[in-house]
Structure formats: C-alpha cells, structure tokens
Amino acid sequence: MNRPKLSLLLSALALSLATLPAEAKTPRSSSAKTAFKKMQPCPATGSSKGSCPGFVIDHVVPLDCGGADAPENMQWQTTWEAKQKDKWERKGCRRP
Fold it and tell me: Can you say whether residue 50 is alpha, beta or left, with left for phi > 0 and alpha for psi between -120 and 50 degrees?
C-alpha cells in the first residue's frame, strides 16, 4: 500500500475512533468478502476462492468503529499483523 493511501486510511480510522459511539455495529457481508477476493486474490496462493494460508481479510476501519463491510474497506493482512493491529484498534471503539 502506498504511503499517501495508508496515511488517508489511518486518518479515517482515527476520525472514526474519535467520533463514533461504542455501540456502532455493522453486520458482515459474505458477498462483500467474495467481491474483495475477486478484486484482490490471496497473496499466498493467487486464488480468489478458498482459504488464504497465513493471511486474513482485515477491515481497514473496523466494523465496530463504523467501518463499512465493503471491498473498499478491506485488505489482506498477515495473521501476525492482524493480531498486532487488533491490540490497539479495538481499545477505542469496541464494546467491552
């Protein structure tokens, strides 16, 4: 991901953390996940179907913080990166 886009996404995340109530919740969509996989095949296998070993689909702006469950708000992330991100992103907006 290029730096300007990453900077913009991080700014959007910070804004959502600061302005949305903790109870914000967006339901997950299997069709959005399927569309994302078609647009961005698995980095490990190159496939747009099935599992992606070592990777997860991450919502750039978390659903619990009001992020959209749409391909535009999704990215591939290694399992390790996802665990690290989860440690800090959920503190600001996730329900206890």
Answer: left
Domain of residue 16 covers 3-89
The pTM assigned to this predicted structure is: 0.65
What is the CA angle 92-4-90, rounded to 5?
Answer: 15
Mean pLDDT along residues 10-23: 48
Residue 95 lies in a domain: no
Amino acid of residue 67: G
If one counts the domains in the chain, the total is 1
Question: What is the C-alpha R_g of the chain?
Answer: 13
Answer for the pair 41, 47: CB distance below 8 angstroms, yes or no.
yes
For 47, residues 6+ apart whose C-beta sits below 8 A from its C-beta are 41
Tell me: pLDDT of 82 over 70: yes
Any domain includes 40:
yes
